[in-house]
Structure formats: structure tokens, C-alpha cells
Q: What sequence folds into this?
């Protein structure tokens, strides 16, 4: 007994032994803290993966078109399963519901713990949730600004059908594709056939020499500068802001009545797609080329400003406004420019201004050069497009023209639909 007492006395006096005892006792909380941190880190990893899989599932359910709610839920569950890897040996089944045009998804999983078991917690509940609004299809208002000058009666240099026939069929195909199924409720089309003039109906107050309260129908060239580079409504007190300016003497021998006989009338935005296609079928070429005038009226029919008010306000973020400009030649008609001038060069400059101003106002511009051998005009059309790489087309053959309209259609669809 004396030896044990002596040993304990020596142990108590030995500093190294005392330090070891204290360290052994104090290290336990550090180990426990590290273990708890590890369990918590695993739970965070699981939650992150679960949230990512839920997001994918809910997006798939919300973004896909033309599905029933049951089909959306099945698609969402499939997407969740493909993105959740069952980490740490746990499984999670999502709960997806659809109500009030909203997809709601949630999931939970029980994660076995390691160190937390020492504290009596064998599992941790991990959960995630998400809500995604089912987006509605956007609308499209599309103005087809089409060259119907005499040269459109000729075939391309490479041969084939008359250019206006190929243009007609390509435009008709675009209308058919964009108005198929649900698209019929979401797309409007306008036609602006142009040559050296444009034939249309306008309030008399907006035409030089006409009376307010009347309706004027006839062919007109552009307004005086700078009104021919914008979409401001004509001022009844300012003739320069009105249409119906005197024709240039060079074209006074070209009767205006031929526009009506050839079906070359402006058709404002319309949801009557069959009527738009019927008019396309009946239009035939006549006259010279005033590209800037065609663009001017194309922008007007898309604008909500008078005289054409069929378009929604430009502030409507749910509507895409598209102007498709096609020509097979350069500017051959005189246009009004600065300081009272009236030259073809003014028309070229006006077109450049119109393109800049329309794009700044939110109009998406697509341009097509059809069998056009004037490099300067081709470059001008390329610069006019909203995206020269995607929305400008140099079509030298009928098949390339069809491809151009197909590409424009696809880009409109991509913009107005959330998913394909």
C-alpha cells in the first residue's frame, strides 16, 4: 500500500504526466466539434445537390410547351432523377405540384450521421424547394416589307423561277410555320409591298391637300425630311410631315392605278393569316425601287402611332416586333433629304437613318439581299440588320431565299418561345 501511495505522489508531481492528462481530457471537445462540422458539411453538400436537381426538374416541367399537368410532373420527376446522384447512400423523391400556372417542387432526405450519433442524433433531415412560374408564349408582330419592283419578275442570275414567286412562297411558308397550332393566337402579320411608291389608305388629315375627317386612298412617296426617317404621327398643321408629296417628274408617267391593279396595297397588322396569304398570292411586280419608303411604312405598321394603330404599344415587353426587308436592287427612286434636296443618295442615307432609329426603338430588323449584285447596297442591308451575322442574308438563288426565311422564322420562334 505504501508503494502505491508513493507512486501516486510521484505521478502528481510529474509535470509531463499532468500535461498529458489535461490534453487527453481537452481534446475530446475538439474532436466532437470537427465531427459535427463534417456531418454538417455533408448535409450542405446533399442540400446543394438536391436543390440543383429540383431546379432542373421544375424548369423542365415549366418550360415545355403543349403538355398536360400530369405530363409536366412526369417530365419534372424524370429530370430530377437524372440530376440527383443519391450521394451518401440516401434517396430522395420529389413532390411536384402545378397550380395557378406555377410549378412547385420539394424533396427531403434523411442523412445518416457519423459523429452526431454520439449526441443521440442518428439522422439529419435535409430538404429543398423551388417555385417556377410557367411562362406564357410571347407574341410576335411581323411586317413583311417586300420589293415588288419590275426586276422581281426576272429569275435570279443562276436561273429558276421569277424572284417574286420564290419570295411569295418563302413568305407564305413562314406564316404557316409561325401560325401553326397555338401560334395562331400569338402572331400578327403586315404586308408592305413597295416599288417607287406605296399604295395605302390614310386619314385625310395626314395627306397633303386632303381634308380632315375623310379617308384618302392612293399611292405616295416618302414624307419630307426628317419625317421620312421616323414614325411620328403627321402634324395636321405641317405639310412637310404628311404623305402625298408631289411625285418626282421622272415617274409622273407611271400611273398610280397600277398599284391597285397589281394588288400592291399595304395591309396593316392582322391576325387573319389566311387573308394575308391570299394577298401574297395576288401581288405582282410594278415600277422602280424605293427601299427607304418601304422601310418607312414597315416601321409605321409595327408602331402603335397613328395612322396604323393595330400594333401593341412599344412598351409591351411580351411582344416581339420584327421587320423583314427584302430587295433585289439598289435605290433607284429619288427621296427627300436635307435642305430640300431630292436624290437617290438621299434615299440611301434615309434608309441608314431608318435602320438605326427603328432598332433603337426596339424593332428587330432582318434583311435579305436577293440576287443583288450591288456591293454597296448589300453592305447597307447587312448593316441594317439587328444582328448582321444572324439576321442578314445574301440569297443568290431561290433555295437560299427559302433558307433565309426559314432561319428568320427559327430565330423568331426562339425569341417568343421559352423552350423548344
A:
Amino acid at each position: 500500500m505504501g508503494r502505491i501511495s508513493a507512486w501516486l505522489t510521484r505521478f502528481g508531481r510529474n509535470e509531463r504526466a499532468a500535461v498529458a492528462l489535461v490534453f487527453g481530457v481537452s481534446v475530446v471537445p475538439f474532436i466532437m466539434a470537427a465531427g459535427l462540422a463534417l456531418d454538417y458539411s455533408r448535409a450542405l453538400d446533399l442540400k446543394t445537390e438536391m436543390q440543383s436537381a429540383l431546379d432542373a426538374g421544375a424548369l423542365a416541367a415549366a418550360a415545355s410547351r403543349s403538355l398536360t399537368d400530369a405530363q409536366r410532373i412526369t417530365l419534372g420527376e424524370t429530370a430530377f432523377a437524372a440530376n440527383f446522384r443519391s450521394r451518401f447512400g440516401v434517396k430522395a423523391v420529389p413532390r411536384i405540384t402545378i397550380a395557378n400556372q406555377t410549378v412547385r417542387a420539394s424533396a427531403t432526405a434523411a442523412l445518416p450521421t457519423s459523429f452526431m450519433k454520439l449526441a443521440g442524433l442518428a439522422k439529419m433531415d435535409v430538404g429543398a424547394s423551388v417555385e417556377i412560374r410557367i411562362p406564357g408564349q410571347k407574341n410576335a408582330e411581323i411586317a413583311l416589307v417586300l420589293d415588288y419592283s419590275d426586276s422581281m419578275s426576272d429569275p435570279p442570275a443562276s436561273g429558276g423561277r421569277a424572284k417574286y414567286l420564290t419570295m411569295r412562297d418563302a413568305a407564305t411558308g413562314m406564316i404557316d410555320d409561325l401560325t401553326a397550332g397555338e401560334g395562331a393566337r400569338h402572331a400578327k402579320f403586315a404586308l408592305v409591298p413597295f416599288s417607287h411608291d406605296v399604295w395605302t389608305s390614310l386619314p385625310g388629315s395626314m395627306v397633303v391637300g386632303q381634308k380632315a375627317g375623310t379617308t384618302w386612298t392612293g399611292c405616295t412617296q416618302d414624307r419630307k425630311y426628317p419625317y421620312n426617317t421616323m414614325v411620328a404621327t403627321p402634324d395636321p398643321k405641317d405639310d412637310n410631315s404628311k404623305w402625298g408629296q408631289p411625285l418626282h417628274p421622272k415617274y409622273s408617267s407611271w400611273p398610280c392605278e397600277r398599284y391597285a391593279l397589281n394588288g400592291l396595297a399595304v395591309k396593316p397588322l392582322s391576325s387573319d393569316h389566311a387573308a394575308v396569304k391570299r394577298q401574297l398570292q395576288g401581288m405582282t411586280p410594278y415600277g422602280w425601287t424605293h427601299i427607304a419608303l418601304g422601310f418607312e411604312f414597315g416601321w409605321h405598321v409595327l408602331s402603335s402611332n397613328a395612322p396604323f394603330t393595330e400594333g401593341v404599344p412599344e412598351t409591351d415587353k411580351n411582344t416581339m416586333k420584327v421587320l423583314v426587308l427584302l430587295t433585289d436592287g439598289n435605290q433607284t427612286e429619288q427621296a427627300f433629304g436635307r435642305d430640300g434636296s431630292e436624290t437617290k443618295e438621299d434615299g440611301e442615307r434615309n434608309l441608314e437613318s431608318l435602320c438605326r432609329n427603328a432598332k433603337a426603338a426596339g424593332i428587330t430588323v432582318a434583311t435579305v439581299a436577293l440576287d443583288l449584285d450591288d456591293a454597296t447596297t448589300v453592305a447597307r442591308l447587312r448593316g441594317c440588320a439587328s444582328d448582321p451575322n444572324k439576321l442578314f442574308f445574301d440569297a443568290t438563288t431561290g433555295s437560299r431565299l427559302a433558307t433565309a426565311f426559314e432561319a428568320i422564322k427559327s430565330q423568331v420562334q426562339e425569341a417568343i418561345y421559352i423552350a423548344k
Summary: Residues 139-416 form a domain with the Rossmann fold fold (CATH 3.40.50.410). The chain has two domains: 2-133, 139-416. Residues 15-63 form the longest helix (49 residues). The CA atoms of residues 174 and 409 lie 6 Å apart.
